[in-house]
Specification:
This protein has one domain: Class I glutamine amidotransferase (GATase) domain (Rossmann fold, 3-Layer(aba) Sandwich). Helices cover 35% and strands 18% of the residues. It is built from eight helices and nine strands. The strands form two sheets. It has a seven-stranded mixed sheet with strand order 5-2-1-6-7-9-8, with helices on both faces. Strands 3-4 form a two-stranded antiparallel ribbon. A hairpin with a 5-residue loop joins strand 3 and strand 4. The radius of gyration is 16 Å and the shape is globular. This is DJ-1/PfpI family protein.
Length: 200
């Protein structure tokens, strides 16, 4: 059975934050299928100049499901749109709410974590982000300080959050949650990309 991973991208998305995780999932023996979702079906350009025509707009994706959810994970990529929209993107909230209603894991990195904090999703769940101070200053209604953890990446039952320097840790935690590899193989994968061929 194909397991769907929905990746939300927006104009000016941080392409490197998808660089480790998407190839591993797309080429896994676990039959994952990567689909891209955006605010509209128009071409989206990353900060690195990579252009993608999304598979779905959010509205089209939600309509196409007819209340049948086969998504294993929603991945929210960082980028410049979050702050430009003041973290108030109604359609993305609709998508996140859909995932929560269907017990779908939500993974967010960099400013996508700020979006979650701004909209109250992290008030009672362990999480991290681009810094506690940044979240507090950016999110006036944020009430989750007691659950903020100063780590590169934090995993809970329904959320994986990471700061913008944690692309590798983010990928590792997602793969661990989805059981892509054995613990031993995953650790070897992480050590290889973290340390390279030669330790300096």
């Amino acid at each position: 059975m194909t397991r769907e991973i929905a990746v939300f991208i927006s104009e000016g998305y941080a392409d490197w934050e998808l660089g480790y995780i998407c190839p591993e999932l797309n080429n896994s023996e676990k039959n994952f299928r990567i689909v891209t979702i955006a605010l509209t079906k128009e071409t989206v350009c990353s900060l690195g100049g990579l252009k993608i025509i999304p598979d779905y707009s959010i509205e089209d994706y939600l309509t196409s499901k007819n209340n049948e959810c086969n998504m294993d994970m929603l991945l929210l990529c960082g980028g410049i749109t979050w702050k430009e929209k003041n973290y108030e993107i109604t359609l993305v909230k609709k998508l996140v709410d859909y995932c929560q209603q269907n017990n779908v894991l939500i993974s967010a990195i960099c400013d996508a974590t700020t979006f979650l904090a701004y909209n109250g999703y992290l008030n009672d769940v362990e999480h991290t982000g681009n810094s506690h101070e940044f979240i507090v200053n950016s999110c006036p209604n944020y009430c989750g300080s007691e659950f903020y953890i100063e780590k590169q990446c934090v995993s809970s039952d329904y959320f994986i959050t990471a700061n913008g320097t944690a692309t590798l840790e983010f990928a590792k935690e997602i793969m661990n949650h989805l059981k892509v590899y054995s613990e031993e193989k995953l650790q070897k994968w992480y050590d290889f990309y973290k340390n390279g061929f030669y330790e300096e």
